[in-house]
Amino acid sequence: MAGGRPREFDFDKALDQALDVFWEHGYEGTSMARLEAAMGLGRASLYAAFGSKDDLFRKVLNRYREETQPTAAALEEPTVRDAVREYLHRNVDAITSPSHPHGCLIVGSALRCSPENADIAATLAELRRVTTQTLQDRFEQGRSEGDTSVTLAPAELAQYVSAISEGLSVRAASGVSRQTLHTIVDVALRAL
């Protein structure tokens, strides 16, 4: 084959395996040895296919964000209140799915990021900021369209929903049940 020999592994499958390792152990808790074992690749093959650990983590973050689109789609609900309710309940379902580690990769990795990895911490903070801004934009749209289902200012509501969402993730990662998390969402919605 022109251009070198073909890859002897499934790139997407290996990326999904790396995603699960990072999701379970966070960025700092994930060693190259752990990645090699999960992905079934030697270090040289891993570096050749994915680059450094940082490069691989950034690819994993992109894959993770693709997987979380069903949660983001909740913002298409007709009212702000409906969007908040669906967003948080879908978030609970996503962070407690039996198909992957519990919690949120982005939040979990941010909790365990030392100063030596300030660039990773900054990337994670930016992703959380973008999510909060997306929420705020949706809430501003609702307000401009006359939606009065929630009276909080869009920026305040976006910060509130982000904080609840991130807190749910931490609790899910620590073993709190899906039902309990849904109950927390119901209480948070009553607080609106």
TrEMBL record:
DNA-binding region listed in the record: 31-50
Pfam family, any one: TetR_N
Keywords, comma-separated and alphabetical: DNA-binding, Transcription, Transcription regulation
A GO molecular function held by the record: DNA binding
InterPro entries from the UniProt entry: DNA-bd_HTH_TetR-type_CS, Homeodomain-like_sf, HTH_TetR, Tet_transcr_reg_TetR-rel_C_sf
Highest taxon, organism lineage: Bacteria
Domain HTH tetR-type span(s) in chain numbering: 8-68
UniProt cross-references to PANTHER family, sorted A to Z: HTH-TYPE TRANSCRIPTIONAL REGULATOR YJDC, TRANSCRIPTIONAL REGULATORY PROTEIN
Protein name: TetR family transcriptional regulator
